[in-house]
Design a protein that fits this description.
Length: 393
């Protein structure tokens, strides 16, 4: 900072030139945060306002305050763009967030993501926070998290932190499933090359397993089994058929694993990999009737043997029925087993199931049983497709 230059300008009595010189020196030095402060001081001075101090007592309609607020937005944009021109998305984000203009930051993140991996790494954590935590581009952020930090961190993020809307979460889980499948497939191909002398790149994952029990000698698992199980659990929300097919292949691989890796969970996933294989297969339109019968049988057994733990298996049954186009059966399952459950983790609410079928009688009957007039009224609005009068009262 050239203080002597500032002093000479001040001695000449030209305040405007003094403030312009200060701003220019900060800009030339790349000190953009200080440039922002200097510009705001210059704007206050030009409007005849105190250059420091609180302006909250200034009337909101005062023309000087209105002008300052307009200039403030322009200054945020200018300084944010300067940070972006230097490739510093982290600093720029604060200014564009103030403006509620995420698109320049989103564009900058996409440009950064195309850099070589080693050039992305120095600012990775800051950029992941912007993309993921602040939600500027969660799908891109998740892709970068997977590439730089791996499947373990990606799973942890989805389990503990991700609160995205449904479409974004599904996109992230689709990408996670693809990454898990690719990691497993590469590990299997390496084993093929080691034991059979060559890779077979056109061979499907399930075909690699056929007739090759040696793949699992010495209690071998080609990926972290906890990661494999987590991805399989996540996969129930998938809607993309190709992603579902990859998840099914993960289940088939899991079924081949030695006994020490065969996880048993609570009903209806006692036979973890096979049960999920049937569920995911039904979602991909494979053996739908068989899968539904499989889970309905599990639910019936649970009702007899442990009636206090019926909710989750009932949700799974209703979920499969709903996802495979049998919403009428899902309604029946819901009314019989889930109507008194305050919170659901997998099955859609009853109102959604009834809306799909265009039949709200079950919803209305349940509301009467609960003595819930509000729920009953909501059902009537849906049943008769009632509209507001339009007068706003």
């Amino acid at each position: 900072m050239e203080y002597s230059d500032l002093s000479k300008i001040a001695e000449s009595g030209d305040a405007d030139a003094l403030l312009k010189e200060l701003a220019q020196q900060y800009e030339d030095a790349g000190q953009y945060a200080l440039l922002f402060e200097a510009l705001i001081v210059g704007q206050r001075f030009a409007l005849g306002l105190p250059v420091v101090g609180d302006l909250s007592t200034l009337d909101e309609k005062d023309p000087r305050r209105v002008a300052l607020e307009a200039q403030y937005s322009d200054t945020c944009r200018r300084v944010g763009e300067l940070f972006l021109s230097d490739g510093d998305v982290g600093q720029a984000f604060a200014y564009f967030r103030t403006l509620q203009e995420p698109e320049p930051i989103r564009d900058a993140l996409r440009t950064w993501s195309k850099l070589p991996r080693e050039e992305r790494e120095p600012r990775l954590e800051t950029y992941l926070e912007i993309a993921l935590t602040h939600g500027i581009d969660p799908e891109l952020g998740f892709e970068m998290l997977l590439e730089h930090r791996g499947i373990c961190d990606a799973i942890t993020f989805l389990e503990q932190q991700a609160k995205f809307d449904t479409s974004v979460r599904h996109a992230c889980i689709t990408r996670l499933t693809e990454a898990m499948h690719a990691e497993l497939y590469e590990a299997l191909q390496r084993d093929l090359e080691k034991h059979e002398g060559k890779r077979i790149p056109d061979l499907a994952l399930v075909d690699i397993l056929n007739g090759r029990r040696w793949l699992f000698r010495n209690n071998r698992c080609h990926v972290d089994d906890s990661h494999l199980q987590a991805v399989v659990r996540f996969a129930v929300v998938l809607e993309d058929v190709s992603a579902l097919e990859r998840a099914i292949e993960l289940c088939v691989y899991g079924m081949h694993l030695p006994a020490s890796y065969q996880r048993q969970e609570a009903c209806p996933f006692e036979d973890f990999y096979n049960d999920y294989r049937l569920l995911l297969g039904a979602l991909a339109n494979h053996d739908v009737d068989h899968a539904i019968t499989h889970y309905e049988t599990k639910l019936s057994r649970q009702v007899e043997e442990n009636p206090r733990a019926v909710q989750f298996p009932a949700e799974v049954v209703a979920f499969i029925q709903h996802r495979t186009g049998h919403s009428d059966r899902a309604i029946a399952t819901f009314v019989e087993h889930l109507s008194q459950c305050p919170r659901l983790t997998l099955c859609p609410p009853l109102i959604d199931l009834c809306r799909e079928c265009g039949d709200f009688e079950s919803f209305l009957s349940t509301a009467i049983e609960k003595n819930n007039a509000l729920q009953y009224t909501i059902g009537l609005i849906e049943k008769y497709d009632l509209k507001p009068s339009g007068d706003g009262r």
